[in-house]
Amino acid sequence: MSVVSVFLFPSSGATFAAVLIQTPSPVSVAVGGKVTINCQSSPSVYSNYLSWFQKKPGQPPKLLIYEASKLASGVPPRFSGSGSGTQFTLTISGVQCDDAATYYCGARMTPLRLPPFLLLGTSSSDVTMTIMF
């Protein structure tokens, strides 16, 4: 289990503290297999604004899932997201070699009337997936 704490400072002067916990780490899966990555947030994510990102070495993070379950444009349907409140899941079905990467959950922790603040995991809260042949 990995834990990261991040403090957010919106322009209103208030301070929000949040924690994201991702499990398991690391993940190993065979080609064609299925993998599930869990993300637990504290406090509850506002309006299910939970996103999942894929990060490969030398590349910027790629958005996979937004608003907990919506597939980002161009992302293969083997990726899916679910959950609400404090419990969220990223599922990859029919894993391919190209899916080997580090995965992050990210959460918007502020209501819509405030500027968006995105809480992202760091290297201490990532889930790295390796593919077995």
From TrEMBL:
Any GO CC annotation of this UniProt entry: immunoglobulin complex
One Pfam family recorded for the sequence: V-set
BP GO annotations: adaptive immune response
Signal peptide per UniProt: 1-17
Domain Ig-like stretches: 10-130
Highest taxon in the source lineage: Eukaryota
Keyword annotations of the record: Adaptive immunity, Immunity, Immunoglobulin, Signal
InterPro entries, per database record: Ig-like_dom (IPR007110), Ig-like_dom_sf (IPR036179), Ig-like_fold (IPR013783), Ig_sub (IPR003599), Ig_V-set (IPR013106), IgV_Light_Chain (IPR050150)
Chain segments annotated as coiled-coil in the UniProt record: none
PANTHER family, per database record: IMMUNOGLOBULIN LIGHT CHAIN
Annotated protein name in UniProt: Ig-like domain-containing protein
Organism field: Oryctolagus cuniculus (Rabbit)
